[in-house]
Specification:
It is built from 19 helices and 18 strands. The strands form 3 sheets. A 9-stranded mixed beta sheet has the order 11-15-12-16-10-9-17-8-18. Strands 1-7-2-3-6-4-5 form a 7-stranded mixed beta sheet. A hairpin with a 5-residue loop joins strand 13 and strand 14.
């Protein structure tokens, strides 16, 4: 440290920059490492409030309904006898009939949207404390009622389970999320911290070589370098942790789309603190050890300008197995074969992605040096020739400049693939939305009222044939009440329909589980316990329903005039239809909830849990991309500035030889743009192939993400233009004799 502070203002500035760079890196590292802790804390509180069946004087029934992109969780509770009752975390006692205890966020929603008040009948008497909520944005309510108003209720035993049934992110998806965040954040972060540890590498190497020449031992020379690097990294780690703690307090108040947490959830644990305070200095020590070894072992070669060794070409060979595996899956898809579902792909695809990413990093220097050598021989322009010769001599400097951005683009492709794959699970592509409500959960007056909710275009009822009470599995049939006009209006295609006759719907694209045959007879239960029989007709309607629908293949279409009104409600379902735009769906669900708050509503084709998870995953991946972008840009800025400072002597020499300011700036821009174009081009191709192989092995309908390719090209072009403009002011044509080395 005495040598550092006694070496002048530039050395002190370099030490400060190393510390600030380490602080930025450690803050990003802490943010990534605490994401699993935030999710785990959310799931632990959600598990602690889960009701469990048992024996008590309380019955309950749960309802999980979509409210926009969120899940509205309501627990209706009724006392069957006086006495003590189990109490969930976050409240002091269970609500009585006509009372409700809601989460603070739901209280705000009810106050802002009077139409949604019907979802929580009764008077709000309190709010749930944080220990009873997964996060600050939870829409949760305990609603008191009477046993008569809770059909099919269960007896409450206690609250709390070992694990929640609705985790924020499914465990299988969490593994994918960790892998993608590792690719787009942690890998660039290692590169960035390595760049920060090697700031002013040439100047430091010459200073260490001078120490070695005046008699310092090899071990002590390495210790001098390690002491400086470790001190800067440790100071940066402390500053980074403090900065992250402040950022966590702010972000906990703001939250992310689909994910809110309490400040305590995001505070790093001891393991995270140890990784940050020990891992960052350790990495700096390792990098400093390798960077200072030449100065300690061969100080003469460092103090004098000697020919540099060409970069090793073995790193580029890593691209061969990585691209070979992911390209192989792409070829299988083109040939019409489906390689999804195999257990080998679980490890093979991630391994191929990691090997390909490593190949992009270690193969960039030899590829750039080879390309620069070819271009230098063919270049007719003096600036281009100077830039190519410089890059040929020192391609490692280009590697430090562009690696972070190359890995960011490569990781962006993987991120797109994950989002496309998850989006296929939860989205509904039909222009119509259906809502199913069991008939035995609503009264005749409520049926009429929900059919008149604004936004509802039509309603129909359907029934399933009688099932034996012994639980044996027998063939059954479904019937839906409707006319030919309704069928044509609410399906993609319906031909051959004749009014006034019972006909069977048939879609040749799909198979029906029981496939009722013409002439077969199926019994349907009546309200008085008797049964009525329907015969499967020979007449069929060629129908093509929208996605999942009540008008599915094999169903009998029965005109209203031919249906008895005495069919048992226990086997019936009321289906409402509306437009599929989100605003209409939200309005219809609010209207149904206001009329029948204790009825379970199924929005057909909308997997609310998947939608909620997709929102959270998208938010976390966006955070990862932002962190990766910050790291990549910071590594680029630090590297370009460091290169400009290190090459002031060379720039001064060229200026003394007569090189103009324009020539020097063109040299600088070309030296940055060429490896960036090569690296980003390779990252786009390799990343798109890796994304495609992931989609192919995932088994989804989308195998080729053509829509995301233009976005990657546009981002890469923007990065190149920004890098070129940022490189121009780094060169100053200022002749300073101090910058000329005199060995």
């Amino acid at each position: 440290m005495r040598l550092l502070w006694g070496s002048g203002r530039r050395s002190r500035i370099r030490f400060l920059l190393m510390s600030l760079g380490s602080a930025l890196g450690v803050a990003c590292l802490a943010a990534v490492l605490t994401i699993p802790s935030i999710l785990a804390a959310h799931d632990a509180r959600a598990a602690a409030r889960e009701p469990r069946p048992g024996a008590s004087n309380v019955v309950y029934r749960e309802f999980r309904d979509p409210y926009g992109p969120q899940l509205l969780h309501r627990v209706f509770i009724a006392h069957t006898a006086p006495g003590l009752a189990p109490v969930p975390p976050g409240i002091n006692k269970l609500p009585g009939p006509g009372e409700a205890i809601v989460s603070p966020k739901l209280d705000e929603v009810l106050a802002a949207n009077p139409k949604a008040a019907g979802l929580v009948p009764g008077r709000v008497t309190g709010t749930i404390a944080p220990e009873g909520l997964g996060g600050s944005d939870d829409l949760y309510a305990y609603i008191g009622t009477t046993p008569a108003e809770l059909p099919e209720a269960e007896t409450l035993g206690s609250f709390g389970t070992g694990r929640t049934w609705q985790p924020v992110v499914d465990p299988s998806t969490l593994g994918i999320l960790r892998f993608v965040l590792g690719c787009i954040v942690l890998l660039p972060l290692v590169i960035f911290l390595s760049v920060c540890a090697r700031l002013s590498g040439e100047s430091r190497a010459r200073r260490l070589a001078a120490l070695r020449l005046v008699g310092l031992s090899v071990k002590d020379t390495l210790r001098v370098n390690a002491g400086e690097s470790v001190a800067a990294a440790f100071l940066g780690a402390v500053v980074g942790l403090v900065g992250y703690l402040g950022l966590n307090e702010v972000m906990a108040l703001i939250g992310l789309p689909g994910l809110h947490w309490y400040p305590a959830d995001g505070r790093p644990d001891l393991l995270t603190v140890a990784v940050c305070l020990v891992g960052c200095p350790t990495l700096a020590w390792i990098v400093g050890l390798f960077s200072a070894r030449q100065a300690a072992m061969s100080p003469i070669s460092v103090r004098q300008t000697t020919e540099r060794k060409p970069p090793r070409k073995y790193g580029a060979l890593l691209l061969v197995p990585g691209l070979g595996v992911i390209s192989g899956y792409c070829v299988l898809s083109v040939m019409g074969r489906d390689p999804s579902g195999g257990s080998s792909t679980t490890m093979l695809i991630p391994s191929a992605v990691l090997v390909t990413g490593a190949g992009l990093v270690f193969g960039l220097a030899p590829i750039t040096a080879w390309l620069a050598q070819r271009l230098a021989g063919a270049a007719k322009s003096l600036p281009v020739a100077l830039a190519m010769r410089r890059m040929e001599v020192d391609p490692g400097a280009s590697l430090r400049v562009v690696t972070g951005l190359v890995l960011l683009v490569f990781g962006a492709s993987l991120t797109q693939g994950v989002l496309v794959e998850l989006d296929q699970v939860s989205r509904r592509t039909a222009p119509l939305q259906e809502y199913n409500i069991r008939l035995n959960e609503i009264s005749p007056a409520q049926r009429k009222a929900v059919a008149e909710v604004p936004g509802v275009q039509a309603s129909t009822v359907s029934y399933s044939s009688w099932q034996p009470l012994d639980g044996s599995d027998v063939g059954h049939a479904d019937l839906v009440v409707g006319t030919c006009a309704q069928l044509a209006a609410y399906t993609e295609r319906a031909t051959g329909c004749v009014d006034g006759k019972v006909m069977q719907l048939r879609d040749d694209r799909t198979a029906y589980e029981y496939d009722p045959k013409a002439g077969e007879r199926y019994p349907f239960a009546l309200k008085d316990g008797r049964k009525i029989t329907f015969t499967v007709p020979h007449e069929r309607i060629d129908v093509r329903p929208w996605d999942l629908s009540v008008f599915e293949s094999g169903t009998l279409l029965v005109p209203p005039s031919l249906l008895s009104s005495d069919l048992a409600d226990a086997d019936g379902v009321l289906t409402l239809l509306s437009d599929a735009d989100p605003a209409t769906i939200r309005s219809v669900l609010d209207g149904i909830g206001a009329i029948a708050p204790t009825a379970s509503v199924e929005p057909v084709g909308i997997v609310i849990d998947s939608l909620a998870q997709l929102t959270v995953i998208r938010s976390l991946l966006v955070v990862g991309m932002v962190l990766g972008l910050v790291i990549g840009v910071a590594a680029f800025v630090v590297s370009v500035a460091d290169r400009a400072m290190e090459r002031r002597g060379q720039v001064t020499a060229l200026a003394l030889l007569g090189a103009g300011a324009g020539t020097l700036r063109v040299v600088q821009v070309v030296q940055v743009v060429l490896p960036l174009v090569v690296g980003l081009g390779a990252a786009i191709v390799a990343g798109w192939l890796a994304e495609s192989s992931y989609l192919i092995t995932g088994g989804g309908a989308v195998h080729w993400d053509w829509e995301g390719l233009p976005l990657l090209f546009a981002c890469a072009l923007g990065v190149v233009l920004a890098a070129a403009l940022a490189s121009v002011p780094m060169v100053r044509r200022h002749i300073d004799p101090e910058h000329i080395r005199r060995d």
